[in-house]
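Look over what follows to help learners.
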Amino acid sequence: MAAKIISGTEIAKEIREELKKEVENLKEKYGITPGLVTILVGENPASISYVTAKQKTSKNLGFYSIQDNQPEDISEENLLELIDKYNNDPSIHGILVQLPLPKHINESKILYAIDPKKDVDGFHPVNIGKLMIGEADYLPCTPAGIQQMLIRTGVKTEGAEVVVVGRSNIVGKPIANILIQKQEGANATVTVCHTRTKNMEEHTRRADILIVAAGKPKAVTADMVKEGAVVIDVGVNRIGKTESGKAKLCGDVDFEAVKEKAGAITPVPGGVGPMTITMLMMNTVKAAKNAGE
């Protein structure tokens, strides 16, 4: 029997409806409009596309939204000044600097300059530290989206064997930290696998929940998955073009083979992807509420 498909598109839609009501409530009761600024340096086509999607979503939810485009050759000093300006702007609750940045700019320096209270991406060391000790204000968006998908599809995480393939700062490490917490929607036993893991399939076959963020197309095959496991595929790989000229995408999991064995699986596209922007919006609403307290 083929696996149940976990649709990130549907879950994201559901959360956005909830957020829309929260935004209306914040405006009516407290006179607060969540404010988000997205800062884009240069003209990287993928970055433009991501930022456009973030702006469109925030406007649809009723946010006060600013798109701040800066030239490729902006100095690090000027970019830091710009961040400082938004740190001190009370109408802005969330600051997002779209990565990657040009080579002459130190990304860490820029991310660390964002006020942790406005770090709606959840990447500031203060917020990562709070996540580690179970007191997170904002969870990094993709891992937060994964947790919401598990919660909202009724997947039991408590006591579950979770295996994460990949140890990036954006997905692998934070999702392991989120699911190990002594909290609802967590309390799992987590193993993290990476490029130096020996006999990876021995670990992945044990997983009740397998989260794959390996950055390699079809890295996880059906023989690496336990019968009935929940498989969350975070990867997005371009593997050529469709007949209409659109980019052909695939995940880090061999979807067609694994869906025959898994109990539930996320597709690519339409799985984890739509959740990331939605979690960014959720963090911004939270930041607006925190600022109003």
The radius of gyration is 19 Å. The CA atoms of residues 124 and 187 lie 24 Å apart. The mean pLDDT is 96. The longest helix spans residues 8-30.
